[in-house]
Give the backbone structure.
Amino acid sequence: MPTALIADDERLMREQLRSRLREVWPELEVVAEARNGEEAVTLTEQQHPDVVFLDIRMPVLTGVDAARQIAQLPTYEDADGWPGCEIVFVTAYDQYAVQAFEQGVVDYVLKPADSERLRLTAERIKKRMSERAQQERGDSDTHVAPLPAHTPDMHQLLQRLAAQINPQAPAKLQWIQATVRQTIQMIAVEEVLFFISDEKYTRVQTATLEALIRKPIKELVEEIDMNLFWQIHRSTLVNVKAIAGVSRDERGRQLVSVRGHKEKLEVSRSYAGLFRGM
């Protein structure tokens, strides 16, 4: 049974969406409802729904900020095999139905939820879920796109939407203040080849030096320009201009080669669809 979470600060809107979903996707079980973006993130981590419906404007955390945090939740590598979720934005504001939505980066539904539009969204999601299930079982050799939350287009869309909702937000980081041995150095973000996090620190690697910062990847995703970096693992961001190629090791894992550095970076299963045909 596919499962869903509905997040909206208006109870009537949650009830209306639940009712419409029952009409167009009767097999879908709504396992939780959230009244704000923070609850949506917490309940998603607890319930592992297949689909999350997020109102764009909510208190505590907006739907956009919630989507960014949900995209950073543990998946295959460290959480009972949860593959992540589809994200659908629900909005009463036509200005947010931007061109990126129409290009298929992410699904959206305008309030009040129209049955036919919701039916189209449901069919798209069911198709993608079926294709992923076939690939997981080994029944298909066809390439299956990564979840929308795990794509560069999605990261870039969320940054644009966040800027629209909060035009007073701080500008993107241009410099990283990092520890190099016993000194603090300023590193231009555009010179960074990749970031790799462990439990306490994030390694900042350029062509000439290696440094450490106390900032996790999930925060960097919100603070740096995601037009410049791709996320290839929950713990790894790589500069797009630094990607030299992608290969596979003997276990079938994708490895990214980086210009100006000998290290190869592993691509996690959640992000494997980023490199089509490899």
Helices lie at 11-24, 37-47, 63-70, 99-102, 115-137, 152-165, 217-223.
